[in-house]
Every structure is written in structure tokens, then in C-alpha cells.
UniProtKB/TrEMBL annotation:
One protein family per Pfam: CBM9_1
The protein's name: Carbohydrate-binding family 9-like protein
Transmembrane segments: none
GO biological process, one term: carbohydrate catabolic process
Organism of this sequence: Paludibaculum fermentans
């Protein structure tokens, strides 16, 4: 496989649907290209927070696995797993922003996952912002997460229906606009990771997105 350019993340085809495995050495994940995100939104190295991300895809779903070495855990008390958690970004999370509108780049979807398995899905339209529509939208995403305290590592996986991202058919060569992020620590000492630098503490800079490509 030819290596992807720095602004491209490749998702590898899977012939069938799978459970949300959290072991990177599981056959489902092992062949998937690994992306290593180790810089903050301004492009400065954050080696202690290097996050490894892998992705697979089927005709129906996009799968994403995050491996997150941690220094500390900032977790929401009494997590809720049966419904989305509003303001989840105030706690430790990983995030995928992804869109299929190349003309109106301010329209995209946001998917978040915590070390406890909490999740949040939002339909973003920043021109103008429509907060109530963000709250009501439902993607049908599934999540799973686990904290390995001995290794100081947490793992999280997402399964996202393509129907929540695009109205178009998906197949090899299909490309989406995307960025990947991570937040660790309490708000007053939070540490940030961004795959593609935004030049801002805000992750919502769609002009900075890279691409996610479906490959076989």
C-alpha cells in the first residue's frame, strides 16, 4: 500500500460487519493503517499524548479505534451510556469531525467518545449556528471503551452509520473531509491533540480539515 500524504487518513475495507473490538491486534484492526496524532492544535509536539487511530469501513458503517496513553483521567461522575452526553467535551474525549459537503465546508458531523463509553453526536452548521438542531440530531452511532489503569492507556471504538454522514454511495476511493482530536484534563489544565493543526484552541476550523479516504 502506498503511504498516504500527511493530510490523508486511510480507512481499510472490511468484508463484513464486526463487533466493536478494542484490541489493536485483533484481526479486524491489525491490517488497518495507523495514524499517529501527537501535536496540539498549534502544531507543537505533545509526545506524551500520542494517540494512535485506525479505521475500517463496510458498505454500511465507518469504524474508528483510538489508543490513548494518558497522564491523568478527567471523567464525568455518574456516566450515562444510553443517551448522548451534552457538553461531553468538558471531560476527556476523542473526537471525529467529518463531512461530505465540499462546497459548504461549515456543514459537518461531530462524534465524541469518552474513556467511560459516553458519546455525543452533533450535526454542525456554523453558518448560521443552529444549536437546537445539534442537540436533536441522532446518528445511530455505537461506542465501546475501556481504561487499562496498569498500562495507563484507554481505548475507544466508534461505529458510525454512513447514512448519518452522506447521502451518496460509498465505495473505494470515496473521500470525506475530516479531522481528529483529543482532549485530556480538567478545563483549567486541559491538553489538546489535533491531527491537522487548526491554529486555534477551537477544533471548529473546517478549513484546516484533512481527508479520510476509503481504500481496499
Amino acid at each position: 500500500m502506498v503511504s498516504a500524504p500527511n493530510n490523508a487518513f486511510r480507512s481499510l475495507y472490511a468484508p463484513g460487519e464486526a463487533l466493536l473490538h478494542l484490541d489493536p491486534q485483533d484481526p479486524f484492526w491489525r491490517k488497518a493503517p495507523a495514524l499517529h496524532a501527537n501535536r496540539d492544535p498549534f502544531g507543537r509536539l505533545s509526545p506524551k499524548l500520542e494517540t494512535t487511530i485506525r479505521s475500517r469501513w463496510t458498505g454500511e458503517h465507518l469504524y474508528v479505534l483510538f489508543e490513548c496513553p494518558y497522564q491523568t483521567l478527567h471523567l464525568k461522575p455518574e456516566p450515562i451510556l444510553h443517551a448522548k452526553t451534552w457538553l461531553l467535551w468538558n471531560w476527556d474525549v476523542v473526537e471525529l469531525f467529518i463531512g461530505d459537503d465540499w462546497e459548504h465546508i461549515e456543514r459537518y458531523k461531530e462524534f465524541e467518545l469518552s474513556p467511560q463509553g459516553e458519546w455525543l453526536d452533533l450535526a454542525i452548521d456554523r453558518n448560521p449556528p443552529e444549536i437546537e438542531r445539534h442537540r436533536a440530531w441522532a446518528s445511530g452511532m455505537k461506542t465501546r471503551a475501556h481504561v487499562d489503569e496498569e498500562r495507563r492507556l484507554w481505548l475507544g471504538a466508534m461505529r458510525i452509520p454512513f447514512a448519518s454522514i452522506t447521502d451518496a454511495a460509498v465505495g473505494p476511493g470515496k473521500t470525506f473531509r475530516a479531522n481528529l482530536y483529543r482532549i485530556e484534563g480538567a478545563p483549567e489544565e486541559r491538553r489538546l491533540v489535533a491531527w491537522m493543526a487548526t491554529g486555534s484552541e477551537s477544533f471548529h476550523v473546517p478549513a484546516a480539515f484533512g481527508t479520510l479516504e476509503l481504500v481496499v
